Task: structure prediction
Amino acid sequence: MKEPVVMESAWARDLYWANKLVSWILLLSPATIVLLIALFEGDAEDVVIFLLLLTGVCAAAVVCSFTTVLSIEGDRLKVEYVQYFRRRNRYFSIAGTVMEVRKYDGIKGKGLRETPPHYWLQIVQNGELKWHLDSRRGFQLEKMLRFVQAFAVARASS
Result:
């Protein structure tokens, strides 16, 4: 049996553990708020507002999904990602899928510096964008190009 082709995000493991940490913070925040109110008995409004804002920021950080691994397994393309505290998988048939790498130019900010260009590896089925990987999220251009070549070989052999 052929070994699956795998492309992993450079910081996927770190993001996964950060996601776990934020989930624990969210889990413990209500207990912390009740404890602080009990300790300060009335002057806790500022602390409660701060903790509620912290909880909102943590929730916004966790709600975002991020891709950790893209792999070719037989005649399917497998995307592993984290969303809502859980690892999830999504599969695409290689036969009806097109992969392309697109370059997006940098954006001129308020300062004099311009952001560097970034790349997207796009997964397209029936002319519709189904998934994308962003070079700003730990996927390097060289790995994307090698993966597209491996995908082309797998698609030709299927």
